[in-house]
């Protein structure tokens, strides 16, 4: 079949779901439109799930099980996919992040993962385990993924990384004085790198702060854009330039309003003096 995308079921749980869906469809000789009619969705939707461009929902899995007569096979696959420490859309974001030419981050309350020390990250996940929000295994999954993401920044050529942190990120104590001292030192070191820009969005911005939730923007090698935004329980990946470009514009406005890198380092250094 011409121009048929090759699927790698080992690349992600979503890809495994899509490959299984395609295999059963092929065995029955159905087109994507024919399967879509049986599942009461479009053939385009079927194509997006098969190729991993759209994650399967619980309703989609139920419809697939009904169409194929597979009991709860697809529903169990979706359940396993969602039983992770990662929000929807984030695994795909990470796959794009590791090849991005430019990475733009805005974070509220916590230092962004790419800039976290291992001790700071462990304190966050450890607290989540204590609260029962995630399991110990999920915490280990988060830390392992974070280490991989940070390691991917050490490549040639290195990606340009722009990070704007709400002032709360550096003032919120995490893991005790020693952990925070090392984390603040890490931020200063990050700011000194030739391929990075670090800025603080001070509390004084008030309503002029462009975002209320964490935002991640990627410029890929072909100059296409990807955005990822999340709340406490949901994540959303966006590729359509109609939606991503306004976010990029808002990010540029935020950078103009935020402190300069020199003033940012000065603020962090002043705060650092109050830690061991």
Q: What is the CATH domain class of the largest domain?
A: Alpha Beta
User: Which shape, going by the Cα principal axes?
Assistant: elongated
**Helices and strands, in N-to-C order?**
HHHHHHEHHEHHEEEEHH
User: What is the assigned CATH homologous superfamily of the largest domain?
Assistant: Endonuclease Chain A
Domain count: the total is 2
- Residue-averaged pLDDT, rounded? 89
By DSSP (H or I, 4+ residues per run), the number of helices equals 12
Major sheet: 6 strands, mixed
Number of strands: 6
Q: From the structure provided, what is the oligomeric state, counting identical versus distinct chains? A: single chain
Name the structural class.
alpha/beta
Report low-confidence residues grouped into runs of 5 or more: none
CATH architecture of the largest domain: 2-Layer Sandwich
Fraction of helical residues: 40-55%
The largest sheet has its strands arranged as 3-2-1-4-5-6
CA radius of gyration: 21 Å
State the end-to-end CA separation. Answer: 65 Å
InterPro entries: Cro/C1-type_HTH, DUF5753, Lambda_DNA-bd_dom_sf
Organism: Actinacidiphila yanglinensis
Domain HTH cro/C1-type: 21-74
Protein name: Transcriptional regulator, contains XRE-family HTH domain
Structure overview:
With 276 residues, the protein is of the alpha/beta class. It is 50% helix and 12% strand. The protein has twelve helices and six strands. Strand 4 (215-219) and strand 5 (225-230) form a beta hairpin. The longest helix is centred in the last third of the chain and has 17 residues, at 241-257. This is Transcriptional regulator, contains XRE-family HTH domain.
């Amino acid at each position: 079949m011409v121009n048929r995308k090759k699927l790698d079921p080992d690349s992600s749980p979503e890809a495994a779901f899509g490959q299984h869906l395609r295999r059963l469809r092929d065995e029955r000789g159905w087109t994507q439109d024919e399967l879509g009619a049986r599942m009461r969705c479009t053939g385009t939707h079927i194509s997006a799930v098969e190729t991993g461009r759209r994650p399967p929902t619980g309703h989609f899995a139920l419809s697939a099980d009904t169409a194929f007569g597979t009991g709860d096979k697809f529903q169990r696959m979706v359940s396993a996919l969602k039983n992770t420490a990662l929000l929807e859309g984030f695994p795909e974001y990470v796959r794009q992040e590791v090849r991005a030419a430019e990475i733009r981050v805005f974070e509220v309350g916590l230092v962004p993962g790419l800039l976290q020390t291992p001790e700071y990250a462990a304190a966050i996940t450890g607290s989540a385990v204590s609260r029962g929000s995630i399991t110990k295994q999920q915490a280990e999954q988060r830390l392992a993924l974070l280490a991989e993401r940070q390691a991917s920044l050490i490549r040639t050529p290195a990606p340009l990384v722009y990070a704007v942190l709400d002032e709360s990120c550096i003032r919120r104590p995490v893991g005790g004085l020693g952990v925070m001292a090392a984390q603040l030192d890490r931020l200063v070191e990050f700011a000194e790198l030739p391929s990075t820009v670090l800025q603080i969005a001070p509390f004084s911005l008030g309503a002029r702060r462009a975002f209320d939730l964490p935002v991640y923007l990627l410029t890929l090698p072909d100059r296409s854009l990807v955005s990822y935004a999340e709340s406490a329980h949901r994540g959303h990946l966006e590729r359509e330039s109609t939606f991503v470009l306004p976010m990029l514009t808002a990010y540029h406005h935020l950078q103009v309003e935020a402190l300069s890198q020199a003033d940012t380092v000065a603020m962090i250094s002043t705060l650092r003096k109050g830690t061991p």
